[in-house]
């Protein structure tokens, strides 16, 4: 019974990782707006790699102002947790750091909280969240306070780190 439980847990975890990978790819394609996606990688400290997508076809150093970069936050802010545990976001930004879109890729948050937060997540787009004091004037959402506060903390940490490491 123990071996079965361990094997089932490993298969479910692998399935969950594959689902998250496919969800990230779907988000990246949507955020790219018809532009070709280029997989990019940047070596971070501690032997970690930052994997992301570039929708300009040019390396980040040569990106046009309309460049689009899509990244996941799990490697950039792994210790921030919400009400239900760790949250992984998919974030699309322009070359200047302006958020184009944010989506929750993986979490153990109650689905009702995530549904409640969808309009709030859409309102995060348009502001420069990777420079200066990101999310200074963004309030948490009553009714999903822990989850929305965690998302703000994730973006606060992941945005500037992505900009410093990749852009």
Descriptive account of the structure:
It is globular, with a radius of gyration of 16 Å. With 167 residues, the chain is α+β, with helices and mostly antiparallel strands. A hairpin with a 4-residue loop joins strand 4 (87-94) and strand 5 (99-107). Helices cover 40% and strands 20% of the residues. Residues 9-15 have low confidence and may be disordered. The relative contact order is 0.15. The chain has a five-stranded antiparallel sheet with strand order 1-2-3-4-5, with helices on both faces.
Keywords:
alpha+beta, 5-stranded antiparallel sheet, 3 helices, 5 strands, globular
Write the layout of secondary structure elements.
Blueprint: H1 2-32, E1 38-43, E2 49-54, E3 68-72, E4 87-94, E5 99-107, H2 111-123, H3 145-166
Antiparallel strand pairs: 1-2, 2-3, 3-4, 4-5
Structure summary:
The protein is built from three helices and five strands; from the N terminus they run αβββββαα.
Beta-strand segment tally: 5
* Count of alpha and pi helical runs: 3
User: Strand order of the main beta sheet, please?
Assistant: 1-2-3-4-5
Task: Give a short account of the largest sheet.
Answer: 5 strands, antiparallel
Strand content: 15-25%
What is the rounded Rg? Answer: 16 Å
What global shape is seen? globular
Estimate percent helicity: 25-40%
How would you classify the helix and strand content by structural class?
Answer: alpha+beta
Mean pLDDT metric: 79
Low-confidence stretches: 9-15
- The SSE order reads HEEEEEHH
- Quote the distance from N terminus to C terminus: 49 Å
